[in-house]
Design goal:
Layout lengths: L1 H11 L7 E7 L2 E7 L5 H5 L4 H16 L4 E5 L1
Parallel strand pairs: 2-3
Antiparallel strand pairs: 1-2
């Protein structure tokens, strides 16, 4: 899941070298934290959060194949 989020984020931003993705386990669910440069935050979130929602949907679909619960946090 971490690699999937990282590839999608790097394709969206102007500074792909500043993209960092961490994966932790909390309360039986996987938490993926995506950090990007402040200037790229708007590109990752999108108008009215549409891109962020799309990223979460893709990750949720990939996680459902493995019967895992995944939460994507964008910081």
């Amino acid at each position: 899941m971490k690699e999937l989020v990282e590839v999608m984020a790097k394709a969206l931003v102007e500074h792909p070298e500043e993209v960092s993705v961490t994966e932790t386990e909390k309360n039986g669910e996987m938490v993926i934290e995506l950090k990007v440069a402040p200037s790229d935050m708007g590109k990752v979130i999108g108008k009215q959060g549409r891109i962020a929602k799309a990223i979460r949907s893709v990750v949720k679909a990939a996680a459902s194949k493995e019967d895992k619960k995944v939460v994507v946090e964008i910081q």
